[in-house]
Amino acid sequence: MLKRFFILCSGADKDLIYSCSNGEQNKYAGIGATVFFTAIMAFIASAYALFTVFDSVYPALLFGVVWGLLIFNLDRFIVSTIRKREKFLSELLQASPRIVLAMIIAIVISKPLEIKIFEKEINTVLLKEKNEMAIANKNQVSNYFKGDVTKNQSEIDSIKSNIKAKEKEVADLYQSYITEAEGTAGTKKMGKGPIYKEKREAHDLALRQLDSLKATSSKTITEKEARSKTLQADLDKKVADSKPIIDSFDGLMARINALGKLPSLPSLFIMLLFLAIETSPIIAKLLSPKGEYDFKLEDTETALRTHIEQNNYQRNLQKQTDASIYDKVYEDIRGDKEIYDYKRKAATELLKMQSDAYVEKQKGVM
């Protein structure tokens, strides 16, 4: 049962192969098994590749089955259409387009499995890239809000700086009138004279201005500090919103690019392995000697070709013979006087009818 299935996979003619020896049947069963298992590997590779894209099992399995059947059909077609010839160079030339196609299929099949085999290394590369993207994104968002944040903070700092300057002025005025009263500075006369009163009034005025400045600035500072918190919250929200996008940066294309950043030698060996597997049915058929099945297939095709050529030759002969006979028949008819008189009479009647019709038409116009 299994042997019959693998022979079916090889694309060999059922009637011819079962009329061959057991060894010949085993050879084509081996070729069919290679075709079948190549399709299985194509199914696994494509299913995994689509799973990384859709992150869902059922679409990946569905596409994997379709892709596996497609590869199976292509391989079966490639193997079944190669014909054994007398010269190996002719066979190789005949199989060269199929070998190129097999190489393309092998590369397509191997890439998803390489991604799975080197998954841990690829995850490391992706993690590094995600961290770099997160830092770059945060810097970009910070630069976007930098103007507003800087302007708002500078306004707060300016107001606080004005308050500090006024506080220093009040403190200086306070020290001035105290030292005036003590007689240690200013006029250096102890007591509360006119100069002391002037300095005290100047201090009291500045203190009232400071209180007024603090009262008016307090609301402004509160509003601007609230705006600073809002800007910071918006910045954090922008960074948080972009985080899931960065975290999801692990699709098929990202993994292929990450695979390209790993050492190429292991990946090359895996691709060569799949290339050997994919081309093995073709190589096996090219290297195998011309067997019983090939002779019988060639005999069947030659018999059919000869039969078609004979039929075509007979049709051409019949066509030429018929043409020659009809040429002679019409040549004899051309000299027959009875036929000539009959044609002449019919032509005369037709000319008379045309002449009468023309006259009637002219009368109608006049």
TrEMBL record:
<keyword id="KW-0472">Membrane</keyword>
<feature type="transmembrane region" description="Helical">
    <location>
        <begin position="95"/>
        <end position="113"/>
    </location>
</feature>
<dbReference type="InterPro" id="IPR025519">
    <property type="entry name" value="DUF4407"/>
</dbReference>
<feature type="transmembrane region" description="Helical">
    <location>
        <begin position="57"/>
        <end position="74"/>
    </location>
</feature>
<keyword id="KW-0175">Coiled coil</keyword>
<protein>
    <recommendedName>
        <fullName>DUF4407 domain-containing protein</fullName>
    </recommendedName>
</protein>
<dbReference type="Pfam" id="PF14362">
    <property type="entry name" value="DUF4407"/>
</dbReference>
<feature type="coiled-coil region">
    <location>
        <begin position="149"/>
        <end position="216"/>
    </location>
</feature>
<keyword id="KW-1133">Transmembrane helix</keyword>
<keyword id="KW-0812">Transmembrane</keyword>
<feature type="transmembrane region" description="Helical">
    <location>
        <begin position="28"/>
        <end position="51"/>
    </location>
</feature>
